[in-house]
TrEMBL record:
<dbReference type="Pfam" id="PF13456">
    <property type="entry name" value="RVT_3"/>
</dbReference>
<dbReference type="InterPro" id="IPR044730">
    <property type="entry name" value="RNase_H-like_dom_plant"/>
</dbReference>
<dbReference type="GO" id="GO:0003676">
    <property type="term" value="F:nucleic acid binding"/>
</dbReference>
<dbReference type="InterPro" id="IPR012337">
    <property type="entry name" value="RNaseH-like_sf"/>
</dbReference>
<protein>
    <recommendedName>
        <fullName>RNase H type-1 domain-containing protein</fullName>
    </recommendedName>
</protein>
<dbReference type="InterPro" id="IPR052929">
    <property type="entry name" value="RNase_H-like_EbsB-rel"/>
</dbReference>
<dbReference type="InterPro" id="IPR002156">
    <property type="entry name" value="RNaseH_domain"/>
</dbReference>
<feature type="domain" description="RNase H type-1">
    <location>
        <begin position="234"/>
        <end position="313"/>
    </location>
</feature>
<dbReference type="GO" id="GO:0004523">
    <property type="term" value="F:RNA-DNA hybrid ribonuclease activity"/>
</dbReference>
<dbReference type="InterPro" id="IPR036397">
    <property type="entry name" value="RNaseH_sf"/>
</dbReference>
C-alpha cells in the first residue's frame, strides 16, 4: 500500500494506481482520503459513533447480524413463532390469515372496514397489495398532501388498535378510528398555520444574518457541503479542502466560516473521537494550530448562502471545478445581493 502513496505530497500515485488496478478500482482507491499528518495507522471500531469498542456496541452488532440471518425484519410474528412465544402466526383479529404488516394495515377484514368508511381518503380503493412498500408508494403517487397525512395517521391507529385488542381486549369501531384520525390531522394542520404565521413574523429577524467581509488584511473563506448521507463527515471534508486551498494560495490571514455548527465546535474544542470523522477533525486541528492568524467561525445558513449554492451545484459535477473571478450565475446573483452588506 505504501508504494501507491507519494510520501512527500501525501497523495495517491494516480498513474501507478491506474496501471495496477482496473478503472473502477482505481477510482475507488484514489477517492480514499489519506492522513495528512503522516502518523501511524490505528484501528477503529466502526460500529461505534466514536470509533471506540464497547461491549454495548458489540451486542447491538451481534443482534443486527442475527436479525439479518433470520430474514425479513418486518415479519416479527415469524420470529416469535420460531421461538415458541406465540402458538400460531395467525392474525389475532380475523384468525384466518398469517399476520404480517400488510395484512394488519390493509388486507385484514378489520382493516378493510376502516378504509371503507365514507370519510376515509381511500374508501373507493379496491387494490390488493402483497407488500406495504407498494401500498405506500401508491398512496404517495395518488393522494394529495392532506389525504396522505390522513392515511398515515389512520395506518398508525389501525396498528395501535391491533395492539390494544391483543393486550387490553379493547376494539375500537372503524368509524371512531377514522374520525379520530381526521380530527388529529385537522388539529395538526391548524397548528402548522399558526407556526407559519409566527415564522413569517420572525423571518425579518432571521434574514438579519448576512454575510460580512473580514477586517483588513484578512481573507474570508466560506465552506459548505451537499450530501446524500453522512452529513458531518461531508462537512469535515469540505472544511479540509478549504484549508488545503488556503495553503495552495499561500494565504496566511484567513477567517474560515461555515454553517456546520457541530463541526466548528469540534474543531475549536477538544476532540476525543476516533471515528472517521474524528480523524478528519484531528487533521483539521493539526493544520489550524500551525497557522496563528487563522480562525474558524460558525454562521447561520443565511450568512453562508453562496457557499451553500456552490455545494448544491457540486452534486452534479463529475470532477473538481474551480472558478476565479467569474462563476455560475446562481452564485453571482447571491454575491450581488450581498454586496450592499460589504459597504
Amino acid at each position: 500500500m505504501a508504494e501507491l502513496i507519494d510520501a512527500d505530497s501525501l497523495t495517491w500515485k494516480t498513474n501507478l494506481v491506474e496501471g495496477v488496478f482496473n478503472s473502477n478500482e482505481a477510482l475507488l482507491i484514489c477517492s480514499i482520503p489519506l492522513n495528512l499528518r503522516n502518523n501511524s495507522d490505528q484501528m477503529i471500531w466502526v460500529s461505534n459513533a466514536k470509533g471506540v469498542f464497547s461491549v454495548k456496541s458489540a451486542y447491538f452488532l451481534d443482534c443486527l447480524i442475527k436479525q439479518q440471518s433470520v430474514g425479513e425484519a418486518s415479519n416479527g410474528v415469524a420470529v416469535l413463532l420460531k421461538r415458541q412465544i406465540v402458538e400460531d402466526g395467525l392474525c389475532p383479529i380475523c384468525q384466518s390469515n398469517e399476520e404480517n404488516v400488510i395484512h394488519v394495515l390493509w388486507n385484514c377484514s378489520a382493516a378493510m372496514d376502516v378504509w371503507g368508511e365514507r370519510e376515509s381518503p381511500l374508501n373507493k380503493w379496491s387494490s390488493v397489495y402483497k407488500d406495504f412498500r407498494l401500498l405506500w408508494l401508491d398512496m404517495v403517487n395518488r393522494l394529495d398532501v392532506v389525504q396522505l397525512d390522513q392515511a398515515a395517521v389512520i395506518l398508525y391507529k389501525i396498528w395501535a388498535r391491533r395492539n390494544c385488542f391483543v393486550f387490553k381486549n379493547i376494539f375500537h369501531s372503524p368509524l371512531a378510528l377514522v374520525k379520530s384520525a381526521l380530527n388529529e390531522v385537522e388539529v395538526f394542520h391548524e397548528s402548522q398555520v399558526r407556526l407559519t404565521y409566527v415564522a413569517d413574523r420572525l423571518l425579518p429577524q432571521i434574514n438579519a444574518v448576512e454575510w460580512r467581509p473580514p477586517a483588513d488584511p484578512f481573507y474570508k473563506l466560506n465552506f459548505d457541503a451537499a450530501f446524500d448521507s453522512e452529513k458531518r463527515l461531508m462537512e469535515c471534508y469540505a472544511l479540509l479542502r478549504s484549508i488545503k486551498l488556503c495553503h495552495e494560495l499561500c494565504l496566511y490571514q484567513v477567517v474560515l466560516e461555515g454553517d456546520a455548527k457541530a463541526v466548528v465546535d469540534s474543531v475549536n474544542g477538544y476532540n476525543n473521537n476516533h471515528s472517521w470523522q474524528g480523524l478528519l477533525i484531528e487533521d483539521i486541528q493539526f493544520f489550524m494550530k500551525g497557522q496563528a492568524d487563522w480562525s474558524l467561525k460558525f454562521t447561520k445558513r443565511h450568512g453562508n448562502k453562496a457557499a451553500h449554492i456552490v455545494a448544491k451545484l457540486g452534486m452534479y459535477l463529475d470532477s473538481e471545478s474551480v472558478w476565479i473571478e467569474e462563476g455560475p450565475q446562481e452564485v453571482l446573483s447571491i454575491t450581488l445581493l450581498e454586496k450592499p452588506c460589504t459597504v
